[in-house]
Specification:
heterodimer; A: about 200 residues; alpha+beta; 4 helices; B: alpha/beta; four-stranded mixed beta sheet
Chain lengths: ~200, ~140
């Protein structure tokens, strides 16, 4: 399936592989769309340098499942989280509170949503807690940030969400993030820092 | 297994073992079920050192790990919610701390040789603490 920038979906039928001098080995795909499923009438040919193809998925089009993958043995980087327990996460929340109090004399209660049972999801949450902990401490290094924080927040709450948002709600700093989605990106430190600074 | 070995085990069961279990229960704040496979623990010829090695191999690391977790109410609660039983055995003649502890469905299984590497208490304590923290 090839998706064009304009939003249409096309299928590509490989019909030729050829060596072009100076350009490497090129795979030629004949493009067909939903209206021309037999390929007749479409003259668009997609040229792809084989060097650019990382892997090929063989799919069962009826079941829409992957049957096999032919790859160049370049590992596809998906992060695998260590398994953790709920106790470790709760302990990390506690450490977060204690460190902020110790370093900034600010009492803050760190709250989470109902913790998942899955060890990898807990592992991700544990890691993200560490990131947020680090960024908050970084923000609170300056005196004006500490003053502002003290007057605005008593709690930090992690909210499971598909979006990344930092919101002030009453005396709580809400951090919305896909905390348990092990395939999602992690929190970018700098962006989190700037979002916290915005609500301070 | 001769009478001499059975007497050593009985003495351990009625003395040190009772005290250790009581100490553990007190530490974690509730009574935990123990299932000790005594026959497997006796499956070697070193009965003259069992009275010290049983403690060092199985109970001292357990006490150390539980102590670090149960230092506050949060840890005690986590133990109460998730740890239901402790099984002690010497089934595979294992002497590596890393392979000693398994935790599944609330059951902590300790499988270690009852006499080998007995002095590696600290190593086993660390490995057990890690296993417990990951599973509570």
């Amino acid at each position: 399936m090839i998706k064009s920038k304009s939003g249409s979906n096309l299928k590509g039928i490989p019909f030729k592989i050829d060596d072009l001098s100076g350009e490497g080995t090129i795979l030629y795909l004949k493009l067909i769309d939903d209206y021309n499923s037999n390929g007749i009438g479409i003259s668009n040919i997609l040229h792809i340098n084989l060097e650019m193809v990382e892997y090929v998925e063989f799919m069962d089009t009826n079941e829409e499942v992957i049957i096999d993958i032919l790859s160049k043995r370049v590992p596809i980087k998906t992060k695998v989280y260590d398994k953790s327990g709920k106790f470790q996460v709760r302990k990390a929340f506690k450490e977060f509170e204690n460190t902020i109090y110790k370093q900034c004399k600010i009492e803050v209660c760190v709250q989470g949503f109902e913790l998942p049972e899955d060890g990898q999801q807990l592992g991700r949450l544990l890691q993200l807690t560490g990131t947020i902990h680090r960024v908050v401490l970084d923000v609170l290094e300056s005196e004006d940030a500490q003053e502002s924080w003290s007057s605005l927040f008593k709690e930090v709450e992690f909210v499971e969400s598909s979006k990344f948002e930092v919101i002030k709600k009453e005396m709580t700093l809400l951090i919305h993030f896909p905390f348990t989605d092990v395939k999602a990106e992690e929190i970018p430190d700098e962006l989190l820092k700037s979002l916290i600074l915005k609500v301070l | 297994m001769g009478l001499a070995e059975r007497r050593i085990i009985k003495e351990f069961q009625e003395g040190a073992y009772k005290n250790l279990v009581s100490e553990i229960n007190q530490l974690i704040g509730f009574n935990i079920e123990f299932d000790v496979d005594w026959n497997s623990l006796m499956s070697n010829e070193y009965s003259d050192i069992w009275d010290t090695t049983f403690s060092k191999v199985y109970f001292q690391p357990l006490l150390g790990a539980l102590k670090s977790i149960a230092e506050d109410d949060m840890g005690k609660e986590a133990l109460k919610d998730s740890l239901h039983k402790i099984v002690i055995k010497d089934e595979s003649d294992n002497s590596s701390a890393r392979n000693t502890y398994k935790f599944e469905n609330g059951v902590l299984v300790i499988d270690h040789s009852s006499y080998m590497n007995a002095d590696f208490v600290e190593e086993r304590t660390g490995a057990l603490t890690e296993v417990l923290e990951k599973n509570l």
